Amino acid sequence: MIKPSSPHQRIIFPLDLPTLGEALEYVELLKGSVGLFKIGLELFIASGPETVAAVKATAPQCGIFLDLKLHDIPATVTNAMASASVLGADFITVHCDDGGPLLRAAVEAAASSGFKPRCAAGKICDDSDQGLGVLGVTVLTSMTTEAMAEAGMDSNRFATASDLVLHRAAVAAEAGCAGVICSPLEAEAVKEANGPELLVITPGIRSADSPPDDQRRTATPYEAIRAGADYIVVGRPIRNAADPVEAAAAIASEIERALEERSASSV
Ligand code: C5P
Fold first, then answer.
1. Has this prediction a pTM greater than 0.85?
2. Residue of 12, 13, 15, 16 to mutate, ligand 1, most atoms within 8 A of C-beta
3. CA–CA separation, 85 vs 107, rounded Å?
4. What is the position in ligand 1's atom list of the atom closest to the CA of 183?
């Protein structure tokens, strides 16, 4: 797994683009400005598993985050993980909705690719760590407490999206996941409850003046890192900027400021 030795390496840029050609243009443009490229469903379905090798060939210094959000019976996820583990990605996502058995199946399948459950998490990334780190998707950052009720979730047990995130993060940690995906609003509580070893990765990154969109549980890059996030996923604020490289650099400065404050407050 890639080790974030400078602030910009904590930025994960999602290649939410319809074709491999367009995606590789962004990889070429941003490979010195971000740490990992995220390949999600849109691009993976359009361009296939070869997308991983193509992105790696264009940006060998960057990590690959395979955001497939796997969600099926444990046997199917085990087999999907076996296929995914040979692609050379650093992280893969699995939904937490079905609890421990599914997450454990994913972690065990990843272990056969060289990933050692939890051992990679505390160090974030050691050069000697190989294989695929499993990340549990807790609750999508587009999800609101109201939408949870509509989706049939038990509001007596989990009054808010954040309550559910905390529950699912604990299940993911117990199952041996390398980390979890949650909103920046829950980053601090997830770190507090599970310790520094569980990686916290937060999408839903927006500045105060960002135009409204589908993201609901959002915060700025500074706020997310200050709250304890290890990595932030930033898509549209970089992709839609007049100058994406400049936008990524501004985000890296915010990350640097938050990291300085984090280390100052921990001494
Ligand atoms: O453009 P934007 O910054 O909203 O991109 C966020 C990315 O993070 C998207 O690729 C989305 O699929 C992903 N994501 C998310 N919320 C999660 C998990 C992944 O927004 N809980």
1. yes
2. 16
3. 11
4. 21
Distance from Cα 204 to the centre of ligand 1, integer Å: 6
CATH of domain 7-266: 3.20.20.70
pLDDT > 50? residue 120: no
pLDDT tens per residue across span 165-176: 999 999 999 999
With a cut of 80, say whether residue 112 has pLDDT above it: no
Q: Which two three-digit tokens encode residue 27?
A: 């990889």
State the burial class of residue 74 (Cβ atoms within 10 Å of its Cβ: 0-12, 13-18, 19+). middle
Per-residue pLDDT reduced to its tens digit, 171-197: 999 999 999 999 999 999 999 999 999
Report DSSP letters for 7-57, one per residue. Answer: GGGGEEEE---SSHHHHHHHHHHHTTT-SEEEEEHHHHHHH-THHHHHHHH
